[in-house]
């Protein structure tokens, strides 16, 4: 069996690495962190910010909305809030659809009983 080298992915990135990835200044990332309260990177013993995949994905979404789509900061906040609330709405819609489906199945069974009787 050949030896397969294990690749170990990074868990945390520095603010400089994230800034290079997004093509922005580190000060802009710090500003977004202050403006968007949901973005809270970990900090090491020296106080340096350490970003996870989740943090970087959120920064990419903010970057896309503000820099590429042209949203204001308040508009971007609203858009992110709406996107975060979407799973709740989906669960509600799913429950409604299941209720309707149950009623339709019951109606079909009644119709079949009436036809065969």
Q: What is the number of independent domains?
A: 2
Q: Could you give the distance between the termini?
A: 68 Å
CATH architecture of the largest domain: Orthogonal Bundle
- Strand segment count: 3
Kindly estimate the percentage of residues that lie in beta strands according to DSSP.
5-15%
Number of discrete helical segments: 4
Explained architecture:
There is one protein chain. The chain is mostly helical. The protein folds into two domains: 70 residues, Multidrug-efflux Transporter Regulator, Chain: A, Domain 2; 45 residues. Helices cover 67% and strands 6% of the residues. The chain has four helices and three strands; from the N terminus they run βααββαα. Strands 1-3-2 form a three-stranded antiparallel sheet. β2 and β3 form a beta hairpin. The longest helix is centred in the last third of the chain and has 44 residues. The model has no long low-confidence stretch (mean pLDDT 88).
